[in-house]
Amino acid sequence: MRFATYSLDGAVRAGVVDGDGIHPLPPDVTVLGLVRSGLPAALEAGSAVLSGPSVPLDRVRLLPPLEAPTVRDFVAFEEHVEGVVASVSGGSGVVPEWYEAPTFYFTNPYALLGAFDDVPVPPGSRLFDFELEVAAVVGRDGSSLAPDEVEIFGYTVLNDWSARDLQRREMKVQLGPAKGKDSATTLGPWLVTADELESYRDGDGFLELDLRVSVNGTEIGQDLLSNMGWPFEELVSYASRGTWVRAGDVLGSGTCGNGGCLAELWGRGRELPPLAPGDVVEMTVEGIGTIRNTVVAGVELPPVRAARPRPRKRKR
User: How far apart are CA 207 and CA 316, in angstroms?
Assistant: First the structure.
């Protein structure tokens, strides 16, 4: 089943997508609420409205599928790491620590955008980039979960928009990414429940989904989700170690390889321009759907003030 959040005539509603239409759920129902009710209850609620009227998808604005309480983004594709290390830090290869355990950062849940929203260039950035990912939505609360205890409610497409010049500066300080990543994250077009994608699972527990990204109609990258270093259940398990994950938390796979972002290709010597206003970035994930965003000019802000030199005075 495909759950979506949408805006129509100023009202925000949740619904079930079927073909070219969306069947509205009751006004007090949200997708986050459905996730927290559990997959069986959510499927029952969705099935109850499928026989009712629908609204054509071309009449609504698709919002992020749910109001995510937290968003973690992993770096689970080895090929992506190889290319981006060269581009962002000037190094080469994959550090041994990457293989030891999954690595993630928390990104900004207030910066989520819908599947077809415009995306402004972050203030001060001249090296704007996309990142093709899939996100899993946690299905139930848990702490220090084993992988076989993890419940995933569903999956959606994620574009982790990245200001590479800001990211490079931050990571030289051994912190971040922060402002290099938190201006925009696209989620969409809807949330596909986990049962819909089980037929794609391979013998090692990975989802063998085709991922593709194009800029202005030219394909830039293609990979398989099954090239991740860990399946999503292990990512959720790691995120829960010594703490909690909650139903509705969003966990990104990290950028796929083979052109999943421009920075990877820059690191491999490909001379491709960064994104600029007017560029259209389209991502399609097999079994989930397509998101398409147009880059637009961002706000112009004054330069950031540099730090003052360290004071030398010790005593008054």
Answer: 64
Distance CA 211, CA 255 (A): 10
As given in the structure block, the two tokens for residue 50 are 């499928």
Express each pLDDT in 131-174 by its tens digit.
999 999 999 999 999 999 999 999 999 999 999 999 999 988 98
Which has the higher per-residue pLDDT, 72 or 83?
A: 72
Strands (E), 60-141: 61-62, 71-74, 104-107, 112-113, 119-120, 128-129, 132-138
Q: Determine which helix (DSSP H) or strand (DSSP E) holds 303, and give its type and residue range.
A: none
Q: Which amino acid is at 293?
A: N
Please state, for a pLDDT cut of 90, what percent of the chain lies above it. 89
Q: In whole angstroms, what is the distance from residue 2 CA to residue 157 CA? A: 13
Residue with tokens 């194009």: 214
Q: Tokens representing 146?
A: 């084993």
Inter-residue contact 34 to 41 (CB < 8 Å):
yes
The phi-psi region of residue 228 (left if phi > 0; otherwise alpha if psi is between -120 and 50; otherwise beta) is beta
Reduce the DSSP state of residue 26 to 3 states and report it: coil
Contacts of 158 (CB under 8 A, 6+ apart): 73, 131, 133, 134, 135, 185, 186, 187, 250, 252, 253
